[in-house]
Amino acid sequence: MTDIKFQIINPGDKEYTELIAEWYLSEWNIPIKTTIDKIKKLSATNYEFQVLMTVDNKPVATGGIYNHVGLLDKEPRFKIYKNWLALVYTVPENRGKGLGTLICRHIQTHSKVLGLKDIYLFTHTAENLYTRLKWQQLERITLGGKDIVVMKKVL
Questions:
Q1: N or C: which end of the chain has fewer CB within 10 A?
Q2: Domain limits at 26?
Q3: Are residues 84 and 138 in contact, defined by beta-carbon separation less than 8 angstroms?
C-alpha cells in the first residue's frame, strides 16, 4: 500500500526548504538562495503556501500558491490576478505516475479551504495536465520564444 501525505512547508522547515531549493535549481536554474528566501517570505495571511508531497515518507513533489510569479515582471498587466499556482515539480524518476495531478488537486483543495474563489497559473509545458484538471485558458502569449498559456481555475 502506498502512503501519500501532504504537508505545508513552514519557514522553519530548513531541511525541506533546502531540498525544494535544490530541486528548483536543477529543474529551472533558480538560485538556491532565491527559493529559500521566497519560501521564508510566504504569507499565510495572503493565502500563500508551499506544499511538499511524500510517498512512503520520501519527498517526491512540491508546488504552491504565490502572489508574485516571474510572469508579472515581464507582463505587468497580469498583476490584477493574485494567487498563482506555481513551481509544481515532481522528481524525475516519479514523473508520469499521476503525482503532478495529485499535488495540484491538493493545492486546489487547500486553496478552496482557505477561502479562495479562483487561482491562476501560466505554463508552456503542462497545458494538457491543467486542461484535464478543468483549468480554463484566459490568454495565450509568446514570451521569450515560448508559447505560454495563462489559465484560471474557479474553485
A1: N
A2: 4-113
A3: no
